[in-house]
């Protein structure tokens, strides 16, 4: 018959467990301290690197993105504060603040024609035309970062994706599922008809009309009653993909 473990045995096992736990905690703390020391050294080296290459960071958008990604990898957010040390070193605090203001200006100025949806590339081209000659170049990543800094304004500024097509939304309005599906259907041709939606999405007339009427009220589509067979609904946010000059670029702000 197996002998039961006595009180002394239980105490020994508990002491062993506590000793192992203490040793594990000490080892974990040692590893964490070592890791923090390495990260601190990396941050110091990164600051030196940024100081030496400030001019390149400001003038080369690709290099700027690469440096910012290095910052993120070691837990440094240069945009956490416009007056932050790394933001000052990188020269990006004022850059993104200025870019954010210009994005707001363009989105507000074009809202009457696109309902608050503008193609990301069209926005970039408008920014390039708007900025002073000799200003820092602007790439897609810059726009994304600038828009992320507009969140506290609660103006609805965000980037939405329609089948790989990036659209900047600048109105505080939730894009419902039906609207997103219709926009996804129209992204290649920039337009659709009631029949296109019926065939493409299998909806009934009532659902289609409700969605289209809502999109018309919000201004994100235009209606053309001159269609050969039936009315066509155009999406201004997608105009920039039409070959040649963008239709919406004919109106310059």
TrEMBL record:
GO terms for cellular component: ESCRT II complex. This is Vacuolar-sorting protein SNF8. GO terms for biological process: protein transport to vacuole involved in ubiquitin-dependent protein catabolic process via the multivesicular body sorting pathway. Keywords: Coiled coil. Belongs to the SNF8 family. Residues 25-52 form a coiled coil. SUPFAM superfamilies: Winged helix' DNA-binding domain.
